[in-house]
Specification:
alpha+beta; Rossmann fold; Jelly Rolls; seven-stranded antiparallel sheet; disordered N terminus
Length: about 425
């Protein structure tokens, strides 16, 4: 753990800020504030969105924002027999921050009687652009209080990460990235909204904003895609927050493969896995509509990403050296860019917009004797800080739909195909092609 924090601190320092280690939630009792009385009954199928103007729907036509869009997705899943009959309520108020939400917590949240509360706040309204570090610290402290108060009432809190604004400076953007890394280390489900709309500098992707502070309808749609469709079904089933598990990895013979099919339409995404081999061949295929992309080890033992659309990215050195390597492919649909990382270092990027339908690990042309471990799929793009953290063996959890340790010795669960992410999606065995 100390090594992880040191590595993260070094990465953060290179971005111009100091990363704070995760801290335990603060006590819910705040001097001078009336304390809530515990609710006697909660609606087990109700989700309450509690935040500011973006979750309220500002900028979207008819205020049909990401929260309303996610409610529609949940209703469609229920109609298809894929999830529970969830209801949602939105008590978000434009301009709110953690101080204002705490002030109206008793009055507005408790009467909702919902089992689940989504704290949808951001550093922008907290005053990060104007106030810097003190506003960062205020957000962190107050969010810990909000989480503790929800749990004291028997509620299950979910937290959205901070996102973009067109007036953010490089320092503001550094604070946003720092906060998002910090939240991913807390014991609470989180959603990576930044990775859906980031232009790479902390601003809205071109064409996805209504004004400097708010996304348009397209931007809200991208934010909705960052939500794991079955998150609340998994929480209702009592699925715990995942933690990094030891794993021996698995060998995939050429007669078998592992397949992952995301639960709903994918726009932004990040897929990560580790491999070890001395041979050549395909590691992963990505099905995009009728076309297929791949990650494979080719001539000279170098790793190459071949897009389903057009173009290639290749590592400068061989990875067929018998050592473990981690490959991360991250796609920002809104800004139209795919970035390849190897062992936390950026290899390169391609301009493209993918519509990934399924991913297959291994197969008929997989390297002979190759091993795989720690397959992850996120419904959001990831930046260089997050790539560095993953390479340092941190388990990031925001928008995580798949975490399969792939433990051939079954140390991580009853099945080497177990998905530990807070989703109900499953990993499948598939015939090799």
């Amino acid at each position: 753990m100390l090594k992880k924090l040191l590595l993260l601190s070094l990465s953060a320092a290179s971005a111009g800020f100091v990363l704070l280690p995760p801290t335990p939630p603060a006590r819910a009792e705040v001097p001078g504030r009336p304390q809530p009385t515990r609710s006697t009954a909660l609606d087990e199928l109700k989700i309450v969105f509690f935040g500011s103007s973006v979750p309220f729907g500002q900028g979207a036509t008819g205020k049909y924002g990401y929260a309303a869009r996610y409610a529609t997705l949940l209703a469609r899943r229920n109609a298809a027999g894929q999830g529970a009959a969830w209801t949602t309520s939105n008590i978000s108020v434009p301009g709110d921050n953690t101080v204002k939400v705490l002030a109206r917590w008793n009055r507005d949240l408790l009467p909702q009687q919902g089992r689940y509360v989504v704290y949808a706040l951001a550093l922008g309204n907290e005053g990060i652009h104007e106030g810097g570090r003190p506003m960062f610290d205020q957000f962190v402290a107050n969010m810990q209080v909000l989480i503790a108060q929800a749990r004291a009432q028997g509620m299950v809190p979910v937290v959205t990460n901070s996102y973009t604004r067109n007036d953010y400076t490089a320092q503001d953007y550094a604070y946003i990235r720092q906060l998002n890394l910090l939240l991913q280390g807390w014991a609470v489900p989180t959603v990576n909204l930044l990775g859906a709309v980031d232009d790479g500098a902390g601003h809205w992707a071109a064409g996805y904003w209504d004004d400097a502070l708010h996304p348009n309808s397209q931007g809200h749609a991208e934010l909705m895609h960052a939500w794991v469709p079955s998150l609340f079904d998994a929480l209702r089933a009592g699925k715990p927050l995942p933690h990094r598990q030891p794993t021996a990895g698995v060998r995939l013979g050429r007669s078998s493969a592992l397949r992952f099919v995301p639960e709903a339409l994918v726009h932004p995404f990040t897929q990560v896995f580790s491999f070890r081999t001395t041979g050549l061949g395909a590691l992963l295929t990505l099905q995009d509509s009728t076309r297929t992309g791949s990650l494979r080890i080719g001539r000279g033992g170098r790793l190459t990403y071949t897009s389903a659309l057009a173009g290639h990215l290749t590592t400068p050195a061989s990875v067929a050296d018998g050592q473990w390597h981690q490959v991360m492919l991250t796609h920002y649909f809104a800004r139209g860019e795919t970035v390849l990382y190897l062992d936390g270092s950026r290899v390169g990027s391609l301009p493209e917009r993918l519509r990934t339908r399924q991913l297959t690990l291994g197969g008929r042309s997989t390297p002979k004797g190759g091993q795989f471990r720690n397959w992850l799929f996120y419904r959001s793009g990831m930046n260089a800080d997050e790539a560095y953290a993953l390479a340092a063996d941190s388990l990031l959890r925001s928008s995580l739909e798949l975490y399969a340790p792939l433990d051939g010795h079954r140390q991580a669960g009853a099945d080497s195909l177990a998905n530990l992410a807070q989703s109900t999606n499953v990993l499948l065995r598939a015939a090799a092609k």
